[in-house]
Each structure stands twice: as structure tokens, then as C-alpha cells.
Amino acid sequence: MTTEIFPGIKQFDLTGKSAVITGGSRGLGYAMAAGLASAGASLMLVSRTQDEGEAAALQLERDYGTNVISFAGDITLQPVTQAMAETAVNTFGKIDILINSAGINIRGPIDELSYEDFSNVMRVNVDGTWLSSRAVVPYMKERMSGRIINLASTLGLVGLANRTPYTASKGAVIQMTRALALELAPFNIMVNAIAPGPFLTDMNIPIADSEEAKNIVLGSTALGRWAQLKEIQGAAIFLASEAASYMVGSVLTVDGGWTAR
Question: Which of 17, 70, 129, 210 would bridge with 57, disulfide CB 3.0–4.6 Å?
Fold first, then answer.
């Protein structure tokens, strides 16, 4: 009985797994990449800037002793995402995990934003997630196995003034996650999302000392502080691992209690 319940599998061990992380050279993408590397996964970091990606890959190799490569390109372009997936398969022989972490945020009142501002956020956050997923799915289907983790946001679950492009995009990511999860579950491909709360990323540093940010962070989170980048790692490792084998279409909030209120 004990053997059947606990078959001796190291639930959080990613040794032998390969992962593609878009937006993996900085911020939450880099933090999640480091988390997967610490669990033994081989990685491809995808970023727009070749030098930045190579430097991040080299650092992770030094820190964790795992195989890390970089890939430079714009994930809003379908030929780029196809090349991304092909490169990963040619390098690692397979793609076990995709983390869609690339994203941007443009803030402001709707009448002060341009349509191009809105479109840019949607292209990166929504189109990029869809195109990257589309690129890896055939390889995952072929092996009848895979994990896709989309980076959503608590702002895909609750509203916030002056964030119409970002909230719209992250709401779309959550619904895309749910629909794709139902579509791919028969192929043993588990699709889930992480919804971070207020992490002090490069995206948020410009507003960190503003009254609005202080009210949001101190007033809306139970912990009353910004999250540290390392605090996203546990959720990423979990969803990438065998421990999440029954997680389908879930949205895992890492928000210091923001959405608990």
C-alpha cells in the first residue's frame, strides 16, 4: 500500500527535463529559470537581446551547473517562435516545459494612451504567449507529455485604474490558459498559470515609491510588502514538476494575500 501511494518518485526533481523560458534573461523569467535550474532542468532562455540572454545563460550555468543556452528573438513573430522551438528540440532532443514569461506594461489613463500602446501590450503579452505555445505544442503532442506555464497576474483577476492594456492582456492570458488546458489535457500536456502580485521587478521599480504603489502594496496585501523575485520560484518548480500532475487550467496566485481580500 505504501509503495502504491508513494512510488519513490522525487516529485520536484527536474533532472533530465528541458525548459524554454520566454523573457528568461531578467525579472521573474530569470527567477523562474533559476528555480528550474536548481531542480536540475536544462534551459533555453529567450530574450530580445542576444548579449543579455547569453550573459544570463552563462550565469545560470555557473550557479547551478546545468546546461543553459540562449535564444534571441521577438516572440510576437511566428517564424521566430517556430525557430525557437526547433532550436530547443535540436539542442535538447525535446521540450518538456514552456514558461511564457515575456511581458510588458504600459500604464496611464485610457485617454492619454495611444492605440499603439494598447496594441503593443497585447502583442507581447497575448500574441507572444499564444505563438510560443503554438510552436511547442506539436513536439509535446508527439511525446504525449508537457507542461506549459503562463505568467498571468493578479491584475488578470482584479481591476486597477490606469492599467487597461495590462489588465486586458492578463485577463486574456488566464482565459487562454483555461481553454488551452482543456484542449491539451488529452495529450498529457498540463497548462496552468501563475498570477503574481506586486513583485519589485524592473517593470515596477519606476512606481515603487509612488503613493499609489504604497497604497496598493501596503494596503492591499496581507504581508504589507513587495515580493522578492525568489518567491516566484516555488510555484514555477511545482507546476513544472510531477507534483502538479493533476493541475489542469489552474491559476496559482502568488500575491501576498492581495486577492484574498
Answer: 70
- Name the packing angle between helices 27-38 and 50-64 (round to 10°): 30
Instruction: Output the tens digit of pLDDT for each of the chain's 261 residues.
Output: 455 666 667 899 999 999 999 999 999 999 999 999 999 999 999 999 999 999 999 999 999 999 999 999 999 999 999 999 999 999 999 999 999 999 999 999 999 999 999 999 999 999 999 999 999 999 999 999 999 999 999 999 999 999 999 999 999 999 999 999 999 999 999 999 999 998 877 766 666 667 777 777 667 888 988 889 999 999 999 999 999 999 999 999 999 999 998
Closest by CA position to 196, among listed 257, 105, 135, 128: 257
- Give me 188's grid cell: 498529457
Q: Strands (DSSP E) along the chain, which ranges?
A: 18-22, 42-47, 68-72, 97-100, 146-151, 189-196, 251-254
217: closest CA among 241, 204, 198?
198
What is the 8-class DSSP label of residue 127? I
The pTM score is: 0.93
Nearest to 233 by CA among 259, 246, 252, 218: 252
Rounded (10°) angle between helices 233-240 and 27-38: 60
d(CA 122, CA 108): 15
Supply the residues annotated as catalytic: 166
Domains of the chain as residue ranges with CATH: 13-253 (3.40.50.720)
Look up residue 228 and give its three cell numbers. 522578492
The CA distance from 183 to 185, in Å, is 6
